[in-house]
Please model this.
Amino acid sequence: MCSFAAEMTQQTKPILTITGSDPTGGSGIQADIKTITALGGYAVSAITSVTVQTTLGIQQFHDLPAQVVAGQMEAVMNDVQPETVKVGLMRTVETVKAVVNALVKYRPSNIVYAPLSQSSQGEPLIPDDVEQAINRLLLPVCTLVLTDRFKSHGDINLYASAVAYYLNEGDNADDAQRKARQFLNVQTAHSERLRSRGFELFDEFRQMVETHFRESSVVSFYADRLNVSTSYLAQVTKRVSGQAPKAFIDDRIISEARRLLTSTSLTVQEISYQLGFTSQAHFTKYFKKLTGLTPSDFRSNQ
Model:
């Protein structure tokens, strides 16, 4: 018998966590494994979705095919026979059915479900038909469905994983939830969660726009100099200011154009060159698109 298998026969069975991946480690499979390991357990996993996300939110979902999820569960269940399963994010009806079929087939002693309908940023995580399938198929086979409300998506992950650990250690549902709540309180008090550089980056972006708006209105110009992707810069500026980066840049250009039109005697052509436009016609088209007026009409109205 291999050393790992021998170890599993002498110790408490591992805990299987079935959920999505979070590359920041704040939730998902990564957070489950960290929590179970910190408590002294051994976590095994089946991943349902791979996400592209930052601490500011999820950009993309890539849901694994249901047969791949089922294959992961089958391999783990046959090999190390976990007695406790914690179920989290599932985003397709087919995946729900595959997970439930495996749970019914292998009959683990404890099945804990942590409902995940929204991310920490309020983004919807599962479609309505998937939620209906969960309610109809998964909930009846669960031994414990967690209904507590938490401040963040990461907290429900931590709490549910802790509950699964204590159930796996032989505690009843009430004791497991009490101990998990205590564990959550301690972890929250000493939390050093990964923090976003969003506000700092936005301030750098704002200052860079102030310096270079006459030079460029292209978002990639600023993203490259800030050494971030355009998509991450967009996440940050929308989260902090409510605007897309292009709109933020355009606002600064239009603000300066209005100032020059109302407080100087520069011609429209001179203003267009000051603002980095290649021609007066280009500037006029840009200004009218954003304000509804040509520069000349705007100056006349003022």
In short: The chain has a mean pLDDT of 87. The longest helix spans residues 245-263.
